[in-house]
Write a structure and sequence with these properties.
The chain is mainly beta. Strand 5 (81-87) and strand 6 (93-100) form a beta hairpin.
Length: 576
């Protein structure tokens, strides 16, 4: 592994691979805020409440726009991360922006400037072992190469970043590794990296001698979670979904759970309970529990198969509880993943316990108590509340799916799908959808009233035509100063990079709205003709923005897929 720091290069040897802490949440440092994990914290709340610069009054085309971009050696499918006031290995202090690419590279940049000495990365590291001739996959599910796909996670108490890389070599074939990097230097820590492997008892069609084995046919798409002294890693896009836990300091495996070890998926949809969550990741409640939503696959409590479910496990990944929609048969048959969207934990309020909120391809939202997820019951009576995104604007309709496989059924759906993760701010939930037909609102606020008979009340929504059909939705991020000056940031991915062969991709669009009045229209739109210099790169499927210290950061593609060795870019927006 070579670590480039400015113009100097530090060499570290990766040839010898070796096989509860407090929660990390978005917090304010001496000079700014931190976003160390996907959507800011372990609740996945999607809010930075320490923003003192950006306000609804100054986020406008005349005063706000694209400031600069940092180029990277491949597409960054994960969300950028940011640590403020970080003293680097050379003694300088920066607000530092981190990104990881499909080319198996990790970058640390100055977050505030690309001029002078800050034009180069503060450090850059390749996680490939050149002595083994390693390279990212060229025949993987993401084009043109598959390397680091998930959002890494940073433990601020130890200044350690955890990254899962995928690589291939002639001698070892395709493998996954867990890397622990010092965020001040990029150098490896704790004797890492370690090769990821897992076995789990099971009897489905891929079992051998009574066990399932994690293989490189899986995609590690879900964002990493750091909590309770462990790193949690989800896998999907293969026969059955996996969740693994590794110790933060020893990098040894501390837990394994498979979502459907005894049953196969439905017909051509061979997957069974993948943990992919639309690029979001497992969530932690601070009480020793971890939550995930799962993808298409069979449900059977008798056979311990939990497709299309919300699953609760303890920190060692012992199964505790679940919620499964009663239309699971339809969802399995129709490939209507619950895990198409991420999961949000809403803090407890008064006597009302913490709630978990998830939604997927049927367009329905499920709110469940973390004290009792509700299991599988007729008409979802075990849930705290269920609602469609637009029950008042675009009524749901019934569809039936029949199959010669395991599952068939009828379920209510709508003309949109949820591929994003909701954000929580100031007593409201914010969520975006991707339309499958023209629908009134792509982004909506729900007033949260814990303990009431209708805890999620649909409220204001953005005007129409703010997100393209087939764009795979949007995950909002909210910047605010406490409970004031709330701004909702969203990306319209357009025709994202993974959606085409090199000719159909379109530029992403960054949009901003007043979080307290979505219906008044945009505060800012990077696609407007007046903002020609503000246009970001090509949209990347499922990517999400962050807003910190007066700036907004998004990952996009600098070049289309058809370009040899296409670059990615980190676009930085702020006050001009």
């Amino acid at each position: 592994m070579a670590v480039a720091a400015g113009s100097a290069t530090v060499t570290a040897d990766y040839s010898g691979l070796s096989a509860s802490a407090a929660l990390t949440v978005s917090s304010s440092s001496a000079t700014g805020a931190n976003v160390p994990q996907f959507h800011g914290d372990t609740y996945r709340s999607g809010t930075n409440p320490n923003e003192t610069i950006l306000t609804p009054a100054n986020v406008a085309s005349a005063s706000f726009g694209k400031l600069f971009s940092h180029l990277v050696d491949g597409y960054a499918y994960g969300q950028p991360l940011l640590v403020s006031n970080l003293t680097m290995g050379d003694g300088t202090t920066h607000n530092v922006l981190f990104a990881a690419t499909e080319n198996d590279s990790v970058y640390a940049f100055d977050a505030d400037s690309n001029a002078g000495s800050n034009a180069n990365p503060l450090w850059q590291v390749s996680l490939l072992n050149s002595s083994l001739g390693e390279a990212p996959l060229t025949d993987g599910p993401i084009k043109p190469v598959t390397g680091i796909t998930s959002t890494p996670a940073i433990d601020l108490t130890t200044n350690t970043m955890y990254v899962v890389s995928m690589q291939t070599s002639t001698s070892a074939g395709a493998t996954y590794r867990l890397n622990a990097l010092d965020i001040t230097t990029g150098l490896p820590k704790y004797g890492g990296p370690v090769t990821i492997s897992a076995r789990y008892p099971g009897t489905n069609s891929e079992s051998q001698d009574g066990y399932l084995n994690l293989t490189a046919s899986c995609l590690q798409r879900a964002a990493l979670l750091v909590a309770y002294g462990s790193v949690y890693i989800g896998f999907g896009s293969c026969h059955s979904g996996w969740l693994l836990a590794y110790s933060e300091t020893s990098l040894t495996q501390t837990g394994v759970f498979n979502m459907s070890p005894n049953l196969d998926g439905e017909g051509s949809f061979g997957g069974a309970g993948g943990v992919w969550m639309g690029g979001a990741g497992p969530a932690a409640d601070g009480k020793g529990n971890v939550y995930v939503s799962t993808g298409n696959g069979p449900y059977s409590a008798t056979y311990a198969s939990y497709g299309n479910s919300i699953v609760k496990l303890n920190s060692g990944l012992t199964f505790l509880d679940y919620f499964t929609p009663y239309i699971y048969g339809y969802m399995d048959c129709a490939d209507a993943d619950l895990a198409a969207g991420g999961l949000l934990l809403i803090p407890p309020s008064g006597s009302a316990p913490m709630q978990a909120l998830a939604g997927g391809k049927t367009g329905k939202l499920y709110l469940v108590s973390t004290d009792n997820l509700g299991q599988e019951q007729d008409n979802d009576t075990g849930a705290t509340y269920t609602t469609f995104f637009e029950p008042d604007l675009s009524p749901p309709y019934e569809r039936t799916c029949t199959s010669t496989g395991l599952e068939s059924g009828t379920g209510e759906v709508n003309s949109y799908e949820i591929f994003g993760t909701a954000a929580y701010f100031n007593g409201s939930v914010y969520l975006g959808i991707t339309p499958t037909a023209p629908v009134p609102a792509p982004m909506r606020r729900f007033v949260y009233s814990p303990g009431s008979s209708q805890p999620l009340t649909p409220s204001d929504y953005t005007p129409t035509d703010y997100i393209q059909q087939g764009s795979y939705g949007t995950t909002p991020f909210i910047s605010a100063n406490g409970t004031s000056n709330g701004i909702l940031w969203m990306i319209d991915h357009g025709e994202p990079l993974q959606n085409g062969s090199g000719t159909s991709q379109t530029n992403a669009t960054l949009r901003a709205f007043d979080a307290n009045n979505l219906g008044e229209g945009e505060l800012y739109d990077s696609s407007l003709a007046a903002n020609g210099a503000d246009v970001p790169g090509y949209g990347i499927k499922f990517t999400a923005p962050i807003a910190v210290n007066g700036k907004v950061y998004i990952s996009t593609g600098h070049d289309p897929v058809s370009t040899p060795s296409p670059q990615g870019e980190l676009d930085v927006y702020g006050l001009k």
